[in-house]
Amino acid sequence: MKTFVAALALACSAVVQAAVPVYGYVVKNTYPHDAAAFTQGLFYRDDVLYESTGQYGASSIRKVELETGEVLQKRDLPANYFGEGIAPVGERIFSLTWTNEQGFVFDIDTFEQVGSFGYQGQGWGLTGDGKVLYMSDGTAFLRVLDPATMGVLRRIRVTADGIPVAQINELEWVGNEIFANIWQTDRIARIDPSTGQVRGWIDLSGLDELAGTAPGSDNVLNGIAWDSKGRRLFVTGKRWPKLFEIRLTRRLGK
């Protein structure tokens, strides 16, 4: 009897796990984007985009006009730093670097550096819910950080169908979920921040072709921004000449 109950529970669990929905997309608007920008982080605030770019000697944080793609303000990182994700907390921007184990804090208006912080391992993506920050490092774990100290409060193991999801890259807080680019894929994971479970996949296959992206193994989907007031979702990629506003569509099955 116990064997039967255990088998039934396992089967039910498999059905639940297999029910993770997949979403497609419809492009609502297309905007210009700097085709030289190796996009690492992106967020939308006060009617403009804030973007971080990577590569040694080319890393920066920027304020960008959505409609034209014009860079309104820019601060370059020192050439020995490879810029990664960014996220706002109040009037400050927190910025990660890839392998330096060093982050920076900038004034959101002037882009003047007002602080710095350290962390162990690599820095990839960063977002926040207004209270805490969430950081990815390329593994299947997200770190929850106290923005006052940048200390690790806890770690979230991200799974889909019970399997750990690694290569979690750029992050964005959308509603009560974390949207996460999965490096080198056309998919965004919708993550439950309390459990780490993937609530859904967003399949953006073909968007790179619409962008007219130049060939290159690193010129992949990366960059998510959410306009909470206008309820608009923006996505782009590394060295993509276009940025898209998209609407999600539900698909059946996987």
From TrEMBL:
Tagged with keyword Zinc: no
One Pfam family of this chain: Glu_cyclase_2
Natural source organism: Pseudoduganella umbonata
Descriptive protein name: Glutaminyl-peptide cyclotransferase
Signal peptide start and end residues: 1-18
Gene3D superfamilies xrefs: YVTN repeat-like/Quinoprotein amine dehydrogenase (2.130.10.10)
Taxonomic superkingdom: Bacteria
Keyword Signal found: yes
Alphabetized UniProt keyword annotations: Signal
Residues forming coiled coils: none
